């Protein structure tokens, strides 16, 4: 497991601010062992990753598959380019989160034994 991030990137900070302004409750830097996600949206049981230039797409895909396998946790990736297009980003993110909210309760139930803090 990699070391937890102790300082948010500018992209992560901006994404968190936008999501909070849109009325979403969220948690930052949440552990889903052996991983940690940038942003967790509890009401939808979904993770959002702020993908800056340091992200490796292939490694992220493997990690996303493992997070879904272990915790039924879908991951949405947001790039710095997407942040620049806030109107379309808001529409796309809220649409995805809305879809995941429809199955959040079932997915949460399946992973509660692994993560009692949820």
Write the layout of secondary structure elements.
Layout: H1 10-21, E1 27-32, E2 35-41, E3 46-51, H2 57-71, E4 75-79, H3 80-84, H4 86-101, H5 104-111
Parallel strand pairs: 3-4
Antiparallel strand pairs: 1-2, 2-3
Give a quick precis of the structure:
With 118 residues, the chain is an alpha+beta fold. The protein has helices at residues 10-21, 57-71, 80-84, 86-101, 104-111; strands at 27-32, 35-41, 46-51, 75-79.
Count the domains: 1
Helix proportion: 40-55%
**CATH superfamily, called what?**
VSR Endonuclease
What pattern of helices and strands is seen along the backbone? HEEEHEHHH
Enumerate the spans where pLDDT stays under 50 for 5 or more consecutive residues. 1-5
Q: What share of residues are in beta strands?
A: 15-25%
What is the CATH topology?
Endonuclease, Chain A
Give a written overview of the molecule.
- By secondary structure, the protein is an alpha+beta fold.
- It has a single domain (about 10-110), classed as 3-Layer(aba) Sandwich (Endonuclease, Chain A).
- The protein is about 45% helix and about 20% strand.
- The protein has helices at about 10-20, 55-70, 80-85, 85-100, 105-110, and strands at about 25-30, 35-40, 45-50, 75-80.
- It has a 4-stranded mixed β-sheet, with helices on both faces.
- The longest helix is centred in the C-terminal third of the chain and has 16 residues, at about 85-100.
